[in-house]
Amino acid sequence: MAKTSRREIIASARDLMREKGYAGMSMKDVALSVGLSKSSLYSHFGSKEDLVPEVLDLTFGEIIEGLEATGDWRADYEAALDRLSSVLIRNRRCLGLHLAYGLSEDESDVREAVSSFFLDLREFLRDLLMQGLDVTLAEPLALDTLTAVEGATLWLALYGNAEPMERVRRALLARADGLLGPEPDEQAKALLTQMLGDWRAATAVERRLADRVIAAQSDLLT
User: Fold this and answer.
1) How many Å apart are CA 160 and CA 153, to the nearest integer?
2) What is the rounded (10 degree) CA torsion for 126, 127, 130, 134?
3) Torsion angle of alpha carbons 83, 86, 92, 94, nearest 10°?
4) How far is the C-alpha of 146 from the C-alpha of 179, rounded, in Å?
5) pTM
6) What whole-number distance in Å separates Cα of residue 23 and Cα of residue 127?
7) In whole angstroms, what is the distance from residue 26 CA to residue 30 CA?
8) Which has the least CB within 10 A, 36, 71, 110, 161?
9) What is the mean pLDDT of residues 126-131?
10) How far is the first Cα of the chain from the last one, in angstroms, to the nearest whole number?
């Protein structure tokens, strides 16, 4: 009989956590799924809690596999966004989010592992963006990216509907494209800041709209 590898145990535990949630999965479930006795499984992992960091590390590694900084922040961001969204669409939920909502207050070690998973994802995205963007732009875009794609998993989990995820993807890429364009004049900056809080967050469409509004106002005054 082939020996069960540590990676196989972790991958099986991940599938069970996606299916049953953290609370619903037992070590017995994991042992049965990989053909081990419970005692053999406990020789690899002392508890269900010990599996969570390993499961999230495996998931994180699969998300970022092959993605690296090339010097082109826009292309790298799109590649990372496409990978993240495709992984979520394929699995119809985010394991980290699934775990986060199923934890009790006394499961602090598991909560810390889930927190680290999301912070690592945010940092990875931020570092790609900082190849060409100031940290004051890269940090919120990385955070908003995770917030938006994670929110879109609701429709995947409930209805298998991937369209909200695609709309999120298009909106985030439009925002990134806005950061590539020429800097608006002072009037446009003021209008965009009034609308969005920070003109630098405007998409290319929003910048063109601001220019048209200012031009229309100028025509009226004339």
Assistant:
1) 9
2) 50
3) 10
4) 18
5) 0.81
6) 34
7) 7
8) 71
9) 96
10) 87
